[in-house]
Amino acid sequence: MSHIKQVGFTLIELMIALALGLVIVAAATMLFLTSSRSQALQQGQLSLQDDANFGLNYIVKDIRLGNLNTINSSINDLTTYGGIVFRSSENSVEVSGVERANIPISIVGKTVNETLLTRSDGLEVGTSPQWTGVSNVQDRSSDQLTIQFVPQYVLDHKNTANENDDVWYGGSDCEGTELEFSRTEGRQVIVQRYFLRPDNNNSKNEPNTPLALACDAGHYPLEGSPNEITGLGDDGEIILQRVDHFRVLYSIQSGENHRYVDTATYMAMASRPRILAVQLGVLARSNQSVGTGTEFSDSQVFRVLDQDVTVTKPIGNSSKYARQVVTQTIALRNAFGERGQ
Fold it and tell me: What stretches pass through the bilayer (predicted)?
C-alpha cells in the first residue's frame, strides 16, 4: 500500500501566525479605542459649544430689551420701571425724603424679596426657587441677574367699536408666555430674572449636581400703584443645561474711571454711577463623558470673567467632561443718551 504524505503547518509556524494575528488585532483594537475617544471628545466639544453659544445668545437678545420704553436713559439702582433691578421696597433708599427703588414702592411682600432681585457672590441667599447661589465650583456662589422693561405693545381693537375686548400684545417673555393683556389690565412691565438651579431632567451618571441656567418672568401694571408682581418667584424655564457657574459684571464709568464690578461691589458704593453694559460668563459642561484620560484634570482652573474657579471634584465618578467658558458683553442700547453722571 502506498503511503499518503500529510502536509500542514509546523508548530513553530502556527505560533508565528498566532503572534502576528494578535499584533494585528491589538493594533485594530487600539485604533478603534482611539477613534472612539476622539469621537466622544469631538461630540462633547461640539454639543458644548452649540448649547453654550446658542443658549447665551438667547439671553443676550432679552437683556438688550432692558430699560426699553422708559423715560430715563440712565440705568442705576433707582431707575423705576426699567433697567436692572437692584432694589425694591425691601431694600429701598431715601432720596430727598422720598423712598426710591427700581420696583415701585407700592409693591410689597414676597414678590419683591431681595433674593428675587439682582444678586452676586457675597450677598445673602434665599431658599429655592429664590436665588440660592448654587454652583458647582469651589468656594464661589453663582450670580443672579434681574431686569425689567416695557415691551413695544400693539393695541388690537378686534375690529369692533367695543373697547372692552381690546387687547395689548407685547410678544412673549423668556418663559415663552404670550404677553397679552386686556385694556382693563393695561400695559405691563415685564420682570425677568436669570439664575442657576438644579436640573431634575438629567442622567444618573452626571457629575456633581446637574445645574441649568433658567429664566423666571413676571409682570406688574405700568400705570397706577401696583401692589404685586404676578408670576415672579417660581422655578422658571431652563434656557441652558449643564452650567457649572454663572457670573455677571456691570460696566460703570465715573469720570474717566471705567471698570467692571459685580452686584455686591456696585451696591456697596456710596454713589452708584449709571450702568452702560452687562458682562455675562458661564462655565458650561459637555452633555456626555469624554473618557477617563488625563487630558482633563480635576484641578483645572477656569477664568470666568474676573474669577478663577475650579470645579468641585465629584465623588465616585471618574469620568471626565469637557468644559468651556463662554462670555458675552452686552451694550445696554436703551441706556445711552445724555449722560448726567
Answer: 12-33
d(CA 228, CA 103) in angstroms, rounded, equals 10
**Which grid cell is 327?**
462670555
Residue 7, all three cell numbers: 502536509
Distance, in Å, from the CA atom of 183 to the CA atom of 91, rounded to the nearest integer, reads 32
Q: What predicted TM-score, i.e. pTM, was given to this entire model?
A: 0.84
Amino acid at site 191 = V
What Cα–Cα distance (Å) separates residue 80 from each residue in 85, 87, 142, 250, 332? 9, 10, 26, 18, 16
Q: Which positions ≥6 away from 122 have C-beta within 8 Å?
A: 141, 262, 264
Q: How many CB atoms lie within 10 A of CB 335?
A: 24
Chain-centre distance for alpha carbon 114: 19
Report CA torsion sign: 320, 144, 189, 53.
negative
As a whole number of Å, the end-to-end CA separation of the chain is 119
Are 249 and 306 spatial neighbours (Cβ–Cβ below 8 Å)?
Answer: yes
129 φψ region: left (φ > 0), alpha (ψ -120 to 50), beta (else):
alpha
Question: How far is 288 from 297, CA to CA, in rounded Å?
Answer: 16
Share of the chain above pLDDT 70, in %: 84
Nearest CA to 213 out of 200, 232, 198 is that of 198
- Per-residue pLDDT reduced to its tens digit, 119-146: 999 999 999 999 999 999 999 999 999 9
For 243-290, write each residue's pLDDT tens digit. Answer: 999 999 999 987 777 899 999 999 999 889 989 899 999 998 887 777
Select from 195, 47, 223, 203 the least CA-distant residue to 117: 195
Q: Tell me the domain boundaries of the chain.
A: 63-146+189-335
Tell me which DSSP letter residue 110 carries: G
HSE value, Cβ hemisphere, 13 Å, CA-based, for 183: 9
